[in-house]
Amino acid sequence: MLKFFTLCAAAFFSYAIISMDVVAQSDDVEARPEVSVTDSDINTGDEVRWTSDNVYILDGLVIVEDGAELRIDAGTVVKANEGTGTDASALVIARGGKIFAEGTLTQPIIFTSVQDNISSDDLLTYEDRGLWGGIVILGHATTNNPGDAAGDYKEIEGVNELVPDGDTRAEYGGSNDNDNSGVIRYASIRHTGINIGESDGNEIQGLTLGGVGDGTVLEYIEVYASGDDGVEFFGGTVGLKYFVSVFNSDDAVDWDQGWRGKGQFWFVLQAPDKAGAAAEQDGAGGDEHFKPYAIPRIYNATYVGAGSNASPESDRGEMLMFRDNTGGFYHNSIFTQFNTGEGGHAIQIEDIDNTGAKTEDSRQRFEAGDLGLTHNIWWDFGAGVNPQTWIAGSDLGFVTSILDYLLANENDTVDPQLRGIERGTTGTGTLDPRPHTGSPAFTNARADSTDDPFFTVTNYIGAFGRTNWLVGWTALDELGYVGDIATSIEQVGTEIPSEIVLGQNYPNPFNPSTMIEFSLDRTQHVTLGVYDLTGRQVAQLINAPKTVGTYRVMFDGNQLASGLYIYQLRTENQVLTRKMTLIK
C-alpha cells in the first residue's frame, strides 16, 4: 500500500496543487510541518513516500523492512532525534528493503540532526559530530566473513543490539552480487556517528554498507562531520560515484570483509582537530585468508589531509592503510597534505610474519598483483620531504620495493597545485579543490578506464577537472566553504635569489585578474593568501612546499567586490604583506 505522511487533509490539498519543484531548501525548513517516524511506520509490503513539504523526524531506529520501499522526494529534509545507546536514532534499509532517495543538484535530500537548524544563521559546525546514528543499507551480496558455524549471517554492530532476539533485520550478506537496494543520489548526510546499542564503541558511520550489491546506485553523496567514519563497506559489490567525505573524526573511507566494488570521483578533506586515515582498507573482519578478497577499483580520488603541519587527534599515522590481506587499486588520483598526531606517512602496506592463524597479509596481495597504485600524484606529507619517508614500514627492502613500484608505474611526487583548501569551522569561500590550469593533474599520463562502463573517461587526475561538482548540493557549499578561486601558478626562474621577495601585483588596480610574483631563497613550505580589510581570508592561493626560485601566480578576483585587499606571503621565517586594489 502507498502511505503519504501528511498531517491533515489541508496539508495534502496544499501539496496536491503546488509543484514539488518549487519547494526549495532556501525556504524556512524549520517552518515545515514535522512528521515523527518510528520503526512501526514502515512494514513489509509498504511503499512509503516522504515529501519535501514536511520535515521527517526519526524517532529511534527506523527500519525499512524486507519487501518495503521508502521513496524520498528531492528537497526533503530528514532529521533524527537526540538519544544515544538504546535510544539512538538511525535509518536502516534491511535486506530486501529498498530506498529511492533521489535529490537533484538544486534540491538535495538532507539527513541531519534535530539540532541542525538549516534555515537559521546559528548553524552547526563540523565540531558538532556524533548527534545521531546514520544511514545503514544491508543487502544480499557476498562477503568473506559470512557468519558463524551455524550459518547465521553477520549483523551490523549496534543495530543488532536494538532489534529483539531472533530478529534478522540487522543481518547482511548472501550470494547475490547483483542485489539491488535502490538509489541514493544528491544526498547530504550530516553530524552522524553517535554510539548506538547497548555496548560502547558502536558508532556507525555516516553511510554503512553491509553486503550491498552492484544493482544499487549511489551517486553524489556527502558525509559531513561524522563522529566515526564517512563510509564503510562490509563486503559486497556496490559502486560509489561522486562521493564527499569531509571533516569526519575517524577514517574518511573504510572497506572490509571482501568489498569488490568500484569508486570514482571521491573527495576527502580532513579537519585539523580530529582525523583518522583518509582510507583504512581492510581485507577481512576475521580470518584473513577467506575469499573473496577485497579488491576494489578506484579512479579519480582527491584525498586532502588536515595539513602536513597539522596534528589532529587520531589513531592513524598513514593516509592510506592497506591491511588484513586487502588488495585494491587506485588510479589517476591525488594524495596530499596529510599529517596527524600519530604521524604523516602517505601509505602503509601491512607486512606481518604470517605465522599462526594470520597466514596472509596485504604485502602478499601487493606482490601477487592484487594491489596497485598507478598514475597518481603524491605531495606534502608530514613524515618528511623525501618520498621514501612517506612509506611506512620497518622492512627497508619492502619499503624500497614499494617506492620503486610507484616510480615505475607513472606515480609522480609533484605539487598538484590545487586552487584553494579551507578547513576552518566557518566557511569563507576559499575551498576550490580543482587543479590550477598549469597543474600536472592536466598534463601527466593517465590510466585507461575504458574497459568498464562504470568509469567516466577523464582528461585529468584527481576528483575534479575544470568543473567543481561540489556546488549546489553539499553542506560545504551551503555553509560557505566553496568558492571559485581561478588562479594559475608558474615557476619562472630557478636561480637562487639572495632573499625572499614578494613583488607588487601587476596590474594594480586590476579587474578582474592580476599577477603576483614572489621569490624563495630556499625550499620551504609557503602560504599565499588574499585578505579583506577585516582580516578575513577571501582566497588561499598556495599552501604547499615550494622549491627555490621565482613564481608567478595569477589571481582572479571576479568573485570579490571592488575595494582594497591585502595579499600575504608566509614562509617558515618571514611574513611579507602588500596591498592591491580591485576596481570593477
Describe the protein's architecture and organization.
This protein is mostly beta strands and 584 residues long. It has five helices and 37 strands. The strands form five sheets. It has a 17-stranded parallel beta sheet that branches. It has a ten-stranded parallel beta sheet with strand order 5-8-11-13-15-17-19-21-24-27. A four-stranded antiparallel beta sheet has the order 30-35-32-31, with no helix packed on it. The longest helix is centred in the C-terminal third of the chain and has 13 residues, at 396-408. The N and C termini lie far apart (60 Å).
Strand content range = 25-35%
- Number of E-type strands: 37
Number of helical segments?
5
Main sheet attributes: strand count, strand direction, barrel closure: 17 strands, parallel
Entry summary:
With 584 residues, this protein is mainly beta. It is built from 5 helices and 37 strands.
Overview features:
mainly beta, 584 residues, 17-stranded parallel β-sheet, single chain
